[in-house]
Structures are given as structure tokens and as C-alpha cells.
Specification:
By secondary structure, the protein is mostly helical. It has helices at 2-18, 24-48, 56-88, 92-97, 102-132, 140-166, 173-186, 198-205, 208-221, 234-266. The chain has one domain. The radius of gyration is 19 Å and the shape is globular.
Amino acid sequence: MAIIRGLIASIYVGIQIESNWTKKWLYAIYILLFAFSTTLPVIIIYGFLAGGFNTDVFGFAFVGSLFYFVFSSLFFNTSFTVIDDREHYRMLKYIIVSKTNYVIYTLGRAIGYVILQVSASIIVLLIFIPVFRLTLSVNVWLLMAALVAGFIGSFGIALMFASYYLLSIREETSLMDILFGALFLISGAMFPPTILPKFGYFASLYFPLSSAIELGRYALFGRHLTTFLSGYSTFGLVSFTYAINISYFIIGLILINFALKTAVKKGYIDITTAF
């Protein structure tokens, strides 16, 4: 029960912190517009400039960009909580020494982000499905499986970056900003990884978000829109996706526990850099 209470409290804290700069209704509009803005390049490039909206290419990129918006926001914002709690609120040390496990606290923050991002993405989909006349064949269970797998992998990435930030005594958000774009290229969000060079394709194949995004597309359209991962059966695609994403989560879990012990030992949990 203590773990559940801590998790619920963390979810609540995360949502409150994210929206504390304005009124809740205005923040809801901001989240919705942010989700729409991620699809705007797709609408312009694939819709207006390259063949129209009712094409596989447009559906591939439109849905992929929404999934990447959800998953990347999760690992970006969740990992940034280390800097936010340590530098801005100066509460990191109190969180770590409290009865709530730090990984559970971080998990709650991640769930809070996902609730907000998924809600905005669903609204964007409901608005633009009839506008763009997207033909969907939704498998709800597969869609839930894709979201859960993507959450697991994204949370694993978040733990990896959180580990780095715990052991860094400088504010280095530029690293995440750079990787945010680089990871977008190999995620298969806007174009199939099969067009990448061999090294890029290999990186994309074993990057957790690419398989989770493809599983999400498969769940929404009922088929593969490109040849990427099309050789897998439904069960094979789900198995491969979970194997990759769970592997990243396990690595992240190992790294965060090592980083926590090291940061406490070196006194990094309450150090500030005037950020």
C-alpha cells in the first residue's frame, strides 16, 4: 500500500508541477497545440507537398510523429526531473531519503506525463481522422500493448539519462536537446528506417521506440504501411517489441541504482549549479 500511495502522490505531483505556470484550462490548450505542432511538418511535407493525405506514407508519418511525441516527451521530461528537483525545487535529497523509493517516484512522474501526452494525442487523432479521411482498422488490445511497450522502453531511457544527470555536477540539458533530434531520425517516426544506411537501420532496429511506434501503427491500421518489421507475425512483432523495450528498462534500472548510490556517496544529491 505504501508503494501505491507513493506512486499516486508522484503522479499528482508531476501533473501539478507541469501545469503550475498557468491555469489548468490554458495548460490543456497548450498540451493540445503542442501535440498538433508535432504533426504539422508531416501535414505540410507529406500532405500538401507530396501526394495528399489519404496515402500510406502520410498515415505512416502522421501516426508515427504522434507516438514519438508521447514517448520522447516521457523520457525527456522524466529524466529532466533530476535537474528540476535538485536545482529548481531543491528537494531531490529529501525525495531520495524518504520512504518512497526513488524509482517509484520517477515512475509516478512518468505516468503523469503519459496521461497528459496520450490525452492530447487522442484528441488530435479524433479531430484529424475525419479531416484527412484516414482509414483505420483499430485493434484496441494491440494499441494498448504498443503504448505499454513504448512506456517501458521510454522509461528505461529516462532512467539512463537520469543516471547521467545524478552523477553530473553541471547543468547539461543541451545533451538531451541534441539527442532528442538524433533519436527522432532513427525512431522511424516520419520515414521508414529501411531507407537509412546499414548502420542507421541497425541502430533503429534495436532502438526501443522504433518497434513500439511500428506496433502502434500496426494496431491502428491493421497492417504494415512499409516493409519495416513486416516480416514478423503479429505475435512475433509483439514479442520483439517487448524484448527490446524490456531490455532497455532493465539496463536503465541497473544504471539508476548504481547512480543513486554513487550520488549519495559523493554528495551530488543536493549540489546546485545556479541553473
